[in-house]
Design a protein that fits this description.
Chains A, B, C, D: This is Formamidase. Chains A, B, C, D: InterPro entries: FmdA_AmdA, FormamaseFmdA. Chains A, B, C, D: GO terms for molecular function: hydrolase activity, acting on carbon-nitrogen (but not peptide) bonds, in linear amides. Four copies of one chain form a homotetramer. With about 425 residues, chain A is α+β, with helices and mostly antiparallel strands. Chain A has two domains: about 300 residues, Jelly Rolls, CATH 2.60.120; about 90 residues, Endonuclease I-creI, CATH 3.10.28. Chain A has seven helices and 20 strands. In chain A, strands 1-3-16-5-13-17 form a six-stranded mixed β-sheet, with no helix packed on it. In chain A, strands 2-4-14-10-12-11 form a six-stranded mixed β-sheet, with no helix packed on it. In chain A, a hairpin with a 2-residue loop joins strand 8 and strand 9. Chains A and B meet through helix 2, strand 11, strand 16, helix 4 and strand 17 of A and helix 2, strand 11, strand 16, helix 4 and strand 17 of B.
């Protein structure tokens, strides 16, 4: 008889929330580098649990001041749990990852999360010119439901996911990243905020690497902020429980790492620290498709969505085009178009009684959808933002009833 | 007793498919201008029908040659039906429009649509560097289902909608459009394709305007290609039957016009002529919210989504980042990121046996979703493309069964 | 080149709404019998249109009196369009039917439907002891949306479907039906209303059968009221546009017939004439699976649901158990349990300002779901009724906001 | 500043899985009686956790023998956690319960569940005449996903819920239950299995009641098997995380109890022990609507569905009518109709390679939907069973591809 005990999640990576990542019993990492040794190796088919600190390594506290968001040290994030090697994985294979669970740690002290608006000085968020100052909202996470003492009359079911997950790059891939990002930085090297973040030895945490190995690796290791072709910090909210992700493998063992758990997020994660950020755990099961990269033309991760997402069905949708706030026409700029859609939604929510910051936080944290609607109609891209009305415990629909009554008595001439 | 006859759709605007828009009994328009007279005026509450030619005014035929797509005269589109005035509407009001139905004309000769890949010479589509030549697919529209003799093993339920709908601009708004678009063109006036389309008197159709009034208006009237803050050519597939749209009103009477009906469309409408384009009709009911623009901060249209959309639930999702095909890093460019997501999806579908052009057409025409996933993680925007697997009558999932069997026999060490 | 014209819906069966079924150019039928000749024969793969009268053959009018419902002649329904033979179909095959479209006839005089509460004298509805008198609501059908001057503040998207569809029975199957229903009637032959309806020669319409052939067939032909193993009057709302139905074939040619079109319906169709009944058309495509009955153990129809249903997501759910209104305990009686769930919903809606009859009609006509929840917990079956709150334009949720505010200030002791 | 610590779930009721309910530190109950003292009292607004044993009090083991199911002692279930009193609750109020989380206990030894087919001797399930012998399937519960070594190629996301939850009855209500159920039993007192279960002193667990109080209460306390108007053992799968339930209050304090946690269930829970039964915990938040029973006509619980349910979209649907297996016609019997729908689905799944018992277990445990379709068309009720095809990792659709290809080459004559 087959025993079931082999199928239970084993904690491969545990964390002590009172210690920084660099002092954990098993040390994770906060840079991408192929030489960071795996913390464990598992066979295909294994189910295991990874515990994670929040992406800032505990810099943000459950209180009512945003000073911690303002003063965050950005050389520390994202602290990642892993890497986990998978037996038999080789470059060109595809690593299949079933996401089985994502949740905050249970208990009074840990079932909370935060959404931060970054201040302009440390990079800001998507709307930093409109919201230059740091703000913070603390969310209570009760089972599947999020509420916040800082955002009244909002209550929704989260869509928990890892903001950041991917396999280690090969040396070649790492070099390509560094080269292309350096080229970009070189176009405006003194820009504040910078165009991209170069490797940064300070505060690098490199797993079990030591001494000169560690220093050499840290000098060239990639920062974790951007998503890249291996996945990484994609911040795709739909990588939730029940989804299956296919990752290209670049080095022997695959070396999967992850972190930046979110209890929920709106598409775009627009406040930068924009999801409901949390510490917690994730349960995974891994498999392999040998030579899958070539079989499926898999140049970057593909995933199959989950049947278990919050399915709100009544949306108010806001549109934006690529004309900037000064009225200047830009050419097919989906970035500006989505910014306008966000600003239009915020302007609307202000009429519903929210402050701009609260509205901004709602768009970053709740399961809103951001869509590329029209992207070929020169010169304007059109993006749209889908706001589920069911997350509000106040009425946010435009004159729902009175319009309708007016329409009932109207007749044609 | 109240009679129901006042509630039936009256055809306010009819079309003869054998005649160009300029020769219809009631002439529509193909430029935006506040002076184009309304073709009818209705009271709030009225339900009415508008018939529409396809956006090209009938230039594309139901056959197997793409020459008509290649040779299209772009000074003609989009031919619009309207404007319809609403009694009592004044600048600052919000026009409420319930979309009740959108469908092709019934009958053998008319229940079809087309998807075109534009050739590079006349602007091309979103992936024109990869697909520079004109292609065309003809779709059979049978009830709610679309199939194509040019795209095998694809069968899906459409999401019919007007690609283009909005109220007439005021003179001030029109001037702002012309000024900002001229400024953009001036940055590279000889570019092919152009950055934007200036007013074009040739082939302008201006409703019932005549003589010098017509000529003067045509010289400054805005082209219909881009979406703008009044809505216009938004190509938002979710403006489907059952949705309610709120439009800002800029001139007395509101003057609502529409056209460019689509039987279905993927987000982005990426082949340019990328939806399933069709002639057909749309049924609407209108209402008014007096002074709604100010009440709701409504700087551009807002809509409430419909409960009646095709709801596929099993998606394969492709990711893209803002690194271009040459490996160059771009800064937060959602345009390039979405292009990569599209290319990744096409590369995958080629492994499923489709040609690149077929895959491109599928992404443009089927109800795929294009999402802005991460838009704050310098330097990479991350966009994602959600492809419903249920539209395929061949298996497109990566090794669904064999992976799973492998995982069942695997055990932890 | 393949021409598309072969794929367009041809009207195989047309109706003149001003004439009874017996006087149509092509006469349909209102009884089930294997000898009724097919009105046409089509090859597998054919797409065709069937026009239908409403199930009562036009006895109900668009006015504000329920006398027509009260006085209906029940020997006439259901008038069916067909039968259509499929070439090559033989007993034991499975007929595959794609439902492509279902809609009312366009135009002022025809885009309406009715919901009737039957009076106790002619059978009554599911709650006839509570609502013994005839009532009627007329619905305006505008595109995909239904509203009624008789049911205020209700507005929803319909789920159009044929209430009745199936293949002709073989002689053996017909005999089995007649035998078992006669046995049931014989247990209480004088019951009012009767337990079942025996064959009835009066008012039988038997297609093109004439003379003694017609009389002989009419004497033994089965009534159309009940659903049976061939499908028939199943009143399954989910047989809507986009679904695919698999029917067992009992005679050569299959002989598919259908009628009783509904614009919408709640599960159970509880007012008897409980859907939104309408005249209209249905577009179908047929296929064959040879010997499918045995291959798939298909003892009665199977269907694949459509991706295009109205998807309301916020439901109020009412429960019922098998204790009757007098407090008497019944054993595992899902009928009584569902009746209680319906009564509980009606009691609730009365508190929202609806009359009992209006509430009853809403449950019959709107897309509510009726579920068998617990069916093994002696002695009570438990059924539940899912009422979508989004169909109401008045607030029907219990103290949504005030409860929530109360909960926010509460603290644990 | 408001502290968040008051909002964290406190464990009001803990369980030791190695001890029977009668020996827990806080003793729950397995009968309904108003005199069972509350184990705690909370203010409205409180969030708290209740731990639960599985419904059988641990009689079923994680092994491959069904002997434990066969030999179960049915005088023990259902063991319930509670009652919890709510301050201020009085008869006629409505208790509002938000279900925040339901999950198995984490860890190797506890993250599993079972589905049992009961043998005919101890009552059997819904299809006991077809499946008279005991069977058992063990499910591995990994995060949100269930798989079973006893049911190959099935993998689905659960819909966790309490099978049993409700407020304590008043003495009057209890008496009414006992009276009506005794009346039913008296109609066939020696029936095996019995028509209903009378009060049973043996093995009664009555919370902290002692001595003669306990004995007196046990003699009249209601068994927990049936759902009743207070809710109780409703086995409604949609009472899942994110739903809000409104319960009538019958006694001071309301005294809410619950248990019988399910990781998943099909509508009807047809194998009797038909859900995925588990031990685990549930997190709740409670509120009050004073005098709500009268305000809302709330004769039995009402709930608002959750936005977080597994949303499979592709269903195969099986129909059943009220003709029994011997061909006998029954009058409007939804019980028999649903049984036929279940048998038809099982017959189909047998053709897909499952044993009858496996198919039966799938229908009981997976999130299938059971619908009352037609319930007014004499003499046949029609019920339907919606089987999501996406839960299978083998192809279960009827000739999906070959049928379709056949249709493509077919043309009309």
């Amino acid at each position: 008889m087959m025993t079931t005990t082999t199928m239970r999640p084993e904690v491969l990576f545990g964390v002590d929330l009172d210690k920084p990542m660099s002092q954990q019993q098993i040390v994770g990492h906060n840079r991408w580098h192929p030489d960071i040794p795996a913390i464990a190796s598992v066979k295909p088919g294994t189910i295991f649990r990874m515990e994670c600190k929040d992406w800032t390594d505990g810099q943000i506290k459950n209180n009512d001041s945003a000073n911690d968001v303002r003063d965050i040290d950005l050389s520390i994030p994202h602290v990642l749990s892993g890497p986990v090697a998978v037996e038999g994985a080789e470059p060109g294979d595809v690593l299949v990852v079933d996401i089985l669970d994502v949740a905050p740690f249970p208990g009074k002290a840990t079932s909370w999360g935060f959404t931060g608006i970054f201040s302009h000085e440390n990079g800001g968020g998507f709307l930093t010119d409109h919201f230059p100052d740091a703000h913070k909202a603390i969310w209570d996470l009760n089972g599947v439901v999020a509420t916040s003492r800082h955002v009244p009359d909002v209550r929704f079911v989260g869509i928990p996911h890892p903001g950041l997950i991917g396999c280690a790059p090969s040396h070649d891939l790492l070099n390509a990243w560094n080269r292309r990002e350096a080229d970009l930085i070189a176009t405006d090297p003194n820009r504040v905020p910078p165009l991209a973040l170069p490797p940064e030895e300070k505060n690098a945490v490199m797993g079990s690497l030591k001494g000169s190995d560690m220093q050499n690796a840290a000098r060239e290791a990639a920062r974790t902020v951007p998503p890249r072709e291996h996945g990484g910090n994609c911040d795709i909210k739909n990588l939730t429980r029940g989804s299956r992700v296919y990752f290209p493998v670049y080095i022997k063992g695959a070396n999967l790492s992850l972190g930046d758990l979110h209890f929920s997020q709106g598409d775009g994660e627009i406040t930068f620290c924009g999801a409901i950020e949390m510490a917690g755990y994730i349960d995974l099961q891994v498999g392999l498709i040998k030579n899958g990269v070539n079989t499926y033309n898999m140049l970057s991760p593909i995933f199959r969505s989950s049947p278990l997402e919050p399915r709100y069905s009544n949306f108010l949708v806001f549109e934006g085009i690529s004309v900037d706030e000064a009225g200047k026409q830009h050419y097919m700029d989906a970035h500006i178009a989505y910014r306008n859609a966000c600003l239009n939604a915020i302007g609307y929510l202000e009429k519903c009684g929210y402050t701009g910051e609260q509205a901004y936080i709602i768009l970053g944290a709740a399961p809103i959808e951001g869509r590329i609607s029209g992207i070929v109609d020169i010169p304007n891209a059109c993006c749209s933002l889908y706001l589920p009305t069911e997350i509000f415990e106040r009425d946010v629909e435009p004159m729902k009833h009175s319009v309708s009554q007016k329409r009932q008595v109207a007749v044609t001439s």
